[in-house]
């Protein structure tokens, strides 16, 4: 098996990025004007990259499938964004953020990338505040912080439960500024259907105008994929309905390796599934775990109302199992613990697939503090609860409203019922230190790449990574490639490679419309999701994965012979879009299972039932699996494994413990 | 409020493309669970239409958790339906009762042309932002985030204005199809923050000019936009925009 | 040289003209209702006629009258223009439109209420203003003043006219109910502390002014005021 070169700069960990940045070849301003860059996706990574590259002088084309770049799914991130500012004076530092992230990722992330992420994290907050992002503040006028899982400091910046929205709107406004100045050409309601490779380098894309159905060819000296994650392979996830893997998957099929596809994050606090009709799951921010205590009844099949279960008959299982971190253990740990309790028969609610997230204790505590402020001495419980509710409302009001809207239950009165759900994918296109994939000139940013989170992402780190890649990494690293491309004149889109790629895309579309089978695209998507959730979800085993691979292959055959895609290609046809995305999900699903089957260990979000400690914790095998699995595509379900060894020179690899 | 499954009649606007004539078409949907969202009810209907060989109904939607602003149905004469402070994707069927007839139309405004069925083109909003809804700060220019303290009340007010999701319900419900609530929310957010001061009046004037150029109507202060806004954006923002606009025109010596 | 640019032709500029002229007309109504209320002295119109004569012959008032007419015409012109522009902003109407769910009917009907008021104004002006300024008031009262009161008493013997006036004052009440607070909002005077006061004041202003005006023809017709 070939070794992959991640192009990590030499030198001391803390100096790698600074040194590289200062020694990187530059492109002079007049040359930048003649260099074109394509950005696919307009979320945190895409929008920030497109805006920054345009500010630097490059000609940028940006594509998104939504009707506006502002609707990219980064907008839905709730809780916050990490940065090693140490504003709270609680001992935070770049190193500590780096350390927490590596440990949180269960020692499966690349040290140099993570350290760079920690280094630029502070700049992100500065940049966002300068853009007018209204992050939460204290009465003194300075920025507020809260805690997130897997850390013991307060380093998470937030804007109520809408941090992603506010950060994205910041990046979006920068992007719109460049659009207004004519430096970025924005293509909304466009979907990338292929990468065009000429002489081994990425030179453009084929995109479909979703309204007219026309296929368009676009040239670029470099192509940036910032199309997000692939959690929708599970059908039910917290991702948006349109979130898809197509851009990344097409890139993969054109030669970009896919890194760690099996690393999926299952978020512990989501609203449980309510019925067959459900189209998506809704997250309840991790920030709720700051003030909510998670519990199940100590008695199996307890049907009493939560308020009727006395304190000593409740099992606060996270606090019991992990006294040091309690309710703020990392997501993978919290999710598995919830599953363990429910599987053991202690689940609550109609489906018994839920646990309680209870705010009573902290509401009362806050109420007592408030009463004190108001000079109310010896307040009774009702007064405390009333005052405390106001505090809770200020902190999490929109989340509580959302919960009530969806479930019809008032979380101020009853504890929330929550259950884990697919939320994020740590895996993605393999990239080197410069964020370049294995195809020269083809880059991957944000959730679309695999690079920074290892086998489990810590809360509030996705926003950090997306913006770090877009604002502070790619604008520098792309220079080292583009400085060698100055002689490359724009290639005509009549080049045979463009024609061939467009014809292939057209053939696929025509195929979808000609099958004229009996089942809708959603039927196949739901079926795929079920296979993936049951066999490649929170817990996996060799037998299940082997079965899943077979089932997916069968499903794929059925899809291509029996799917029904109504309408025509020359019009706005969302069913046709879905067909393309689900076809790619089916292929990806198989690779995820292959990867999960290959990784004979448990780490982070990847939990193989065969590999666990006596206490049920993930059991890593550092000797044999301390590597990034990067898969090369060889046509029709043929994938070849390449390994990138992970070297830990600055951190002592240990069994992860949050006890 | 229904807790039992329901049978409903839908009257849905169907229009094949921007040029075509549209009309309301009747559909029966049966066995609708009260736990379904309004859009999930449409999923079920579409699934049915596809199996029958009909064209499914096109509508915009994405995050389905009330934040992306894509969903945009005009339900029984109100944007996002009968409940306050929710988007269509978060409207649940328990808000209806068995036997109801529900009329579903697209947003209607000259500046929001229909693309197909219930989907409309809202890129006018993007162009309003591109005209000035930003602070001109290039990446790397920023000073330390805590260098300028901002009073919490002011920062909170900016946040409340910034909560706008650009769904367009304000335009859809306004009898004049005016976009002032949307435009003023962005102008206010940035006007309330110290970082937004240098461009404050320029911004107000250029965003208003773009808003006018897009063909939105004029505000007559009916307050419908505020009442229907799923994010509770306040009319105070429009007053603030007016003030800033007057400042740009009558106080400032700069001509934009 | 810098100019005012589109200060008045922009959407906010048009509102500004509506707001300023509206507030000006609101001020005028106070003067108007004050003078007219002098009939309630029920002294055969003597006090009223004195007031009316002052209004008719003081040059400052006459000059103000010109400004008033310009303001009124601007208010009417701009109002009609807004109605048509706003209609054009929604070429395809909704099949179902539930406006009452989110706004008051009269705030959505300012064009209609304004048009009713315009029709009324034409009748009203030809009834009194044309008489007092141009064609001349036929009689004099006991003090030798022009007896505008007599013209008034004469007009309001006709039940049809009385009903027209009362209905017009209902329109005026609703027009003001929205217009008063709306003008302040347009001028940008929205404040958490003051706006509720403005709204309350506007409410009582609209009711009191309209009721006082409506009482006049009713009181004369029923013979309470002679």
TrEMBL record, chain A:
Catalytic reaction(s) noted: a quinone + succinate = fumarate + a quinol
Cofactor(s) listed: FAD
Chief localisation class: membrane
InterPro entries, sorted: FAD-dep_OxRdtase_2_FAD-bd, FAD/NAD-bd_sf, Fum_R/Succ_DH_flav-like_C_sf, Fum_Rdtase/Succ_DH_flav-like_C, SdhA/FrdA/AprA, Succ_DH/Fum_Rdt_flav_su, Succ_DH/fumarate_Rdtase_cat_sf
Segments forming domain FAD-dependent oxidoreductase 2 FAD-binding: 37-463
SUPFAM superfamilies noted in UniProt: FAD/NAD(P)-binding domain, Succinate dehydrogenase/fumarate reductase flavoprotein C-terminal domain, Succinate dehydrogenase/fumarate reductase flavoprotein, catalytic domain
Enzyme Commission number: 1.3.5.1
A GO term from the CC aspect: plasma membrane
Transmembrane segments: none
Domain Fumarate reductase/succinate dehydrogenase flavoprotein-like C-terminal: start-end pairs: 525-658
Alphabetic keyword roster: Cell membrane, Electron transport, FAD, Flavoprotein, Membrane, Oxidoreductase, Transport
Enzyme class name: oxidoreductase
Compartments (UniProt record): Cell membrane
Active site, per annotation: 331
UniProt entry tagged with the keyword Electron transport: yes
GO biological process, one term: anaerobic respiration
Gene3D superfamilies given in the database record: FAD/NAD(P)-binding domain (3.50.50.60), Fumarate reductase/succinate dehydrogenase flavoprotein-like, C-terminal domain (1.20.58.100), Succinate dehydrogenase/fumarate reductase flavoprotein, catalytic domain (3.90.700.10)
Example GO molecular function: flavin adenine dinucleotide binding
Pfam families: FAD_binding_2, Succ_DH_flav_C
Membrane topology: Peripheral membrane protein
Family of this protein: Belongs to the FAD-dependent oxidoreductase 2 family. FRD/SDH subfamily.
NCBIfam families the UniProt entry points to: PRK07573.1, sdhA_Bsu
Protein name as catalogued: succinate dehydrogenase
Species whose genome carries this gene: Pedobacter quisquiliarum
Automatic annotation (TrEMBL), chain B:
UniProt-recorded Gene Ontology molecular function terms: 2 iron, 2 sulfur cluster binding; electron transfer activity
Annotated TM spans: none
Homology family: Belongs to the succinate dehydrogenase/fumarate reductase iron-sulfur protein family.
GO BP: aerobic respiration; respiratory electron transport chain
Source taxon at top rank: Bacteria
Protein name: Succinate dehydrogenase
Pfam family, one: Fer2_3
Cofactor: [2Fe-2S] cluster; [3Fe-4S] cluster
InterPro entries: 2Fe-2S_ferredoxin-like_sf, 2Fe2S_fd_BS, 4Fe4S_Fe-S-bd, Beta-grasp_dom_sf, Helical_ferredxn, SDH/FRD_Iron-Sulfur, Succ_DH/fum_Rdtase_N
Location of the 4Fe-4S ferredoxin-type domain: 155-185
């Amino acid at each position: 098996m070939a070794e992959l070169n991640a192009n990590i700069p030499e030198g001391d960990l803390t100096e790698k990025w600074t040194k590289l940045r200062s020694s990187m070849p530059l492109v002079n301003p007049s040359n930048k004007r003649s260099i074109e860059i394509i950005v696919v996706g307009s979320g945190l990574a895409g929008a920030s990259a497109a805006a920054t590259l345009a500010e630097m002088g490059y000609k940028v084309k940006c594509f998104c499938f939504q009707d506006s770049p502002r609707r990219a799914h980064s907008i839905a991130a709730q809780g916050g964004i990490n940065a090693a500012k140490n504003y709270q004076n609680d001992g935070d530092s770049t190193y500590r953020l780096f350390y927490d992230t590596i440990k949180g990722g269960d020692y499966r992330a690349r040290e140099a990338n993570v350290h760079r992420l920690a280094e630029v994290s502070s700049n992100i907050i500065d940049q966002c505040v300068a853009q007018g992002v209204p992050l939460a503040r204290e009465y003194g006028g300075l920025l507020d912080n809260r805690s997130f899982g897997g850390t013991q400091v307060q380093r998470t910046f937030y804007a109520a439960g809408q941090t992603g929205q506010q950060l994205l709107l910041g990046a979006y406004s920068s992007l719109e500024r460049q659009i207004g100045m004519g430096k970025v050409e924005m293509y909304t309601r466009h979907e990338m259907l292929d990468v065009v490779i000429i002489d081994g380098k990425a030179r453009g894309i084929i995109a479909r105008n979703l309204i007219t159905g026309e296929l368009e060819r676009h040239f670029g000296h470099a192509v940036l994929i910032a199309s997000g994650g692939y959690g929708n392979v599970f059908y039910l996830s917290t991702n948006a309905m349109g979130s898809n893997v197509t851009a990344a998957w097409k890139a993969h099929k054109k030669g970009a390796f896919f890194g760690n596809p099996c690393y999926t994050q299952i978020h512990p606090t989501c609203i449980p599934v309510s019925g067959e009709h459900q189209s998506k799951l809704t997250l309840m921010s991790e920030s709720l775990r700051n003030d909510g205590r998670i519990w199940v009844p100590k008695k199996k099949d307890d049907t009493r109302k939560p308020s009727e279960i006395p304190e000593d008959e409740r099992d606060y299982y996270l606090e019991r199992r992990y006294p040091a971190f309690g309710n703020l253990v990392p997501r993978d740990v919290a999710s598995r613990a919830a599953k363990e309790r429910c599987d053991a028969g202690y689940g609550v609610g109609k489906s018994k697939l839920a646990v309680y997230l209870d705010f009573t204790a902290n509401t009362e505590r806050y109420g007592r503090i408030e009463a004190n402020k108001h000079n109310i001495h010896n307040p009774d419980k009702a007064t405390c609860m009333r005052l405390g509710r106001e505090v809770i409302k200020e902190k999490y009001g929109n989340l509580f409203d959302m919960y009530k809207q969806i479930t019809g239950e008032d979380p101020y009165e009853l504890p929330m019922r929550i259950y884990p759900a697919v939320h994020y994918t740590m895996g993605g296109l393999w990239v080197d230190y410069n964020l370049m994939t294995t195809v020269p000139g083809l880059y991957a940013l944000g959730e679309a790449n695999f690079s920074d989170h290892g086998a489990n992402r810590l809360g509030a780190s996705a926003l950090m990574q997306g913006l770090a890649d877009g604002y502070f990494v790619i604008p520098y690293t792309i220079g080292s490639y583009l400085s060698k491309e100055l002689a490359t004149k724009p290639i005509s889109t009549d080049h045979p490679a463009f024609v061939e790629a467009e014809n292939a895309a057209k053939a696929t579309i025509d195929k979808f419309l000609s099958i004229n089978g009996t089942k809708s695209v959603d039927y196949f998507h739901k079926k795929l999701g079920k296979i993936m959730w049951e066999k490649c979800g929170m817990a996996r085993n060799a037998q299940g994965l082997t079965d899943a691979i077979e089932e997916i292959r069968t499903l794929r055959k059925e899809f291509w012979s029996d799917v029904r895609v109504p309408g025509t290609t020359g019009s706005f046809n969302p069913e046709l879009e879905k067909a393309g995305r689900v076809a790619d999900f089916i292929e990806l699903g198989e690779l995820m299972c292959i990867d999960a089957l290959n990784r004979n260990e448990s780490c982070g979000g990847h939990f193989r039932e065969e590999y666990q400690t006596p206490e049920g914790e993930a059991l890593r095998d550092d000797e044999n699996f301390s590597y990034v699995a990067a898969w090369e595509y060889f046509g029709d379900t043929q994938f070849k494994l390449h390994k990138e060894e992970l070297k830990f020179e600055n951190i002592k690899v240990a069994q992860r413990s949050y006890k | 409020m229904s807790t039992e499954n329901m049978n409903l009649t839908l009257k849905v606007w169907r229009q094949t493309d921007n040029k075509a004539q549209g009309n309301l078409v009747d559909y029966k949907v049966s066995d609708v669970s009260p736990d379904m969202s309004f859009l999930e009810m449409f999923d079920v209907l579409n699934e049915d239409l596809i199996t029958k060989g009909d064209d499914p109904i096109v509508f915009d939607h994405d995050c389905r958790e009330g934040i992306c602003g894509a969903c945009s149905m005009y339900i029984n004469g109100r944007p996002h339906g009968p409940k306050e402070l929710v988007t269509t994707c978060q409207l649940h069927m328990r808000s209806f009762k068995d036997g109801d007839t529900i009329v579903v139309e697209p947003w209607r405004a000259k500046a929001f042309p229909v693309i197909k069925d219930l989907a409309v083109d809202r890129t006018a909003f993007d162009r309003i932002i591109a005209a000035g809804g930003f602070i001109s700060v290039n990446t790397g220019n920023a000073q330390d985030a805590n260098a300028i303290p901002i009073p919490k009340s002011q920062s909170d007010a900016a946040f409340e204005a910034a909560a706008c999701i650009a769904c367009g319900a304000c335009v859809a419900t306004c009898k004049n199809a005016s976009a002032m609530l949307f435009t003023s929310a962005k102008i206010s957010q940035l006007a309330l923050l110290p970082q937004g001061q240098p461009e404050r009046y320029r911004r107000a004037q250029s965003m208003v000019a773009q808003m006018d150029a897009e063909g939105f109507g004029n505000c007559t202060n009916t307050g419908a936009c505020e009442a229907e806004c799923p994010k509770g954006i306040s009319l105070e923002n429009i007053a603030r925009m007016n003030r800033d606009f007057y400042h740009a025109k009558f106080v400032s010596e700069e001509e934009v | 040289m810098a100019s005012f640019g589109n200060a008045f032709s922009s959407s906010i500029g048009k509102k500004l003209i509506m707001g300023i002229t509206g507030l000006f007309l609101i001020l005028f109504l106070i003067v108007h209702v004050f003078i007219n209320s002098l009939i309630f002295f029920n002294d055969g119109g003597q006090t009223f006629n004195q007031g009316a004569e002052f209004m008719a012959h003081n040059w400052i008032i006459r000059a103000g009258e010109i400004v008033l007419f310009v303001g009124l015409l601007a208010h009417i012109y701009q109002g009609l223009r807004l109605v048509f522009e706003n209609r054009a902003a929604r070429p395809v109407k909704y099949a179902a439109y539930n406006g009452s769910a989110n706004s008051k009917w009269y705030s959505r009907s300012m064009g209609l209420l304004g048009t009713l008021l315009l029709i009324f104004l034409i009748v009203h002006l030809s009834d009194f203003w044309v008489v007092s300024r141009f064609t001349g008031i036929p009689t004099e009262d006991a003090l030798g003043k022009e007896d505008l009161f007599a013209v008034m008493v004469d007009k309001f013997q006709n039940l049809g006219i009385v009903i027209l006036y009362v209905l017009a004052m209902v329109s005026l009440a609703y027009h003001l109910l929205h217009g008063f607070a709306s003008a302040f909002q347009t001028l940008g005077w929205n404040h958490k502390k003051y706006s509720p006061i403005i709204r309350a004041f506007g409410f009582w202003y609209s009711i009191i002014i309209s009721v006082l005006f409506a009482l006049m023809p009713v009181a004369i017709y029923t013979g309470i005021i002679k």
